[in-house]
Structures are given as structure tokens and as C-alpha cells.
Specification:
Layout lengths: L4 E4 L16 H10 L13 H25 L10 H12 L5 E4 L2 E4 L2 E2 L5 H15 L5 E4 L8 H14 L2
Helix pairs in contact: 1-2, 2-4, 3-4, 3-5
Length: 166
Amino acid sequence: INPLTKRISAQRYLQLNETVQKQDSETAKSQLKDSYRNRSPNEPQTDYQQVLISLFAQESSRDSEYVTNSRSATVKLEIPQSVKEKVIDCWNFIFPYRSLKLENDRVRADNFSGTEMSDGEKVGLYLISQILLAEKDCIFIIDEPELHLHKALMVRLWNKLEEYRN
């Protein structure tokens, strides 16, 4: 598969841990890419936790870079939106009845742990995160994109994701 192609299998584990481990941005990126290498298309994807680790690591890297740049800037710099913040914005559009919080190394939906989210919500978070974390100009191959998602949410999800990644 072309390195700018990302396959998202219908067979994926939707288990979330209570907390998200910390990892530096480069390691997180590398391990996320490695989770797709040499894998059989019939083997379920088990990268959900690494996807979440990558969201937190990317934001941490953005924050560090902003602080460094701000110290040498002569004018106040605008804080660029992190992928994690985009994921939250997208989630809140798709699931307006359930507020997503990705903070303090935890995934929460309203007052519930991410482990208690419905399968549809977990799939939504997974797909949003995968699409927004992918490299620029990446081509997506998504097997059964409707899996666990209500039909009413599917159009909203894909239209919103296309706004971010046309």
C-alpha cells in the first residue's frame, strides 16, 4: 500500500483504557505508523490506544513549539488549533448531546469514562481521530464506515470530516 494510503478496517477493537499514556510526538507518530506495517488485512486493528496517545502527543508538541516561538516573538502569536481540539470540535458537531473531554490524560464523554461510551461513539471518536491525524494528501480506504454508527449521524460525520480533509 502507498505510504500516503491509510486503510481503516471494519475489524477493530474498540476497547479504551481508563487513562492515555504519555509519549513524545515523534515516538507516537512512529508507533502509529508501525501499527499498520506488515499486518494482514484480515487481522483486527488494535491501534485505538495509540491513536489517542498520538492526539495527546501532538497537542503537547504544539504547546511546546508555541511557547518556544512566543519567547522570541515580537508580537503575540496566535495559538494554532491542535488535532485534539479539532477532534473535540468535530465530535461536538456529530454528537451534540454528549460533550467530549480529552484532558488530564483521560477520555470522557459527559461525566462518563471513555470506556463507558457506546460502540457508535467509540467508532466516531476513532474515525475522527484517524482521519484528522493522517498525513496531508492521504488517501483513505475505510471498510464498512457505517459500522456501529446510526445512519442519521453518518452524513454529518463524513460531511464534517470532509470540511477538515477535503
